[in-house]
Amino acid sequence: MAELDKQIAVIAQEDPTARRLQQLRGVGPLIATALVATVGDGKQYRKGRDMAAALGLTPRQHSSGGKDTDPQNRFISGGLRPPKTDSRNGV
Questions:
Q1: pLDDT tens for residues 7-49?
Q2: pTM (2 decimals)?
Q3: Rounded CA gap, 42 and 21, in Å?
Q4: Between the chain's N and C termini, which has fewer beta carbons within 10 Å?
């Protein structure tokens, strides 16, 4: 394992793109070489968002849009929907 780490470190130092990536906080030789191997020069992507999506990275949802705020429907997602009552028959 140590030998592989050394080989990755050498490759990361020789590749200019990997060296540039390592300047980012949290990116070391392993991540830099993995990105270079996966993405290449990145010209196949129109924008960074496309590359992130191809890698499986998606933005977090911080808006309230689409969330159900009705307290009567909060049980539906768990399968415990409360029974409906009929106000006309008192049932």
A1: 999 999 999 999 999 999 999 999 999 999 988 888 899 998 8
A2: 0.57
A3: 13
A4: N
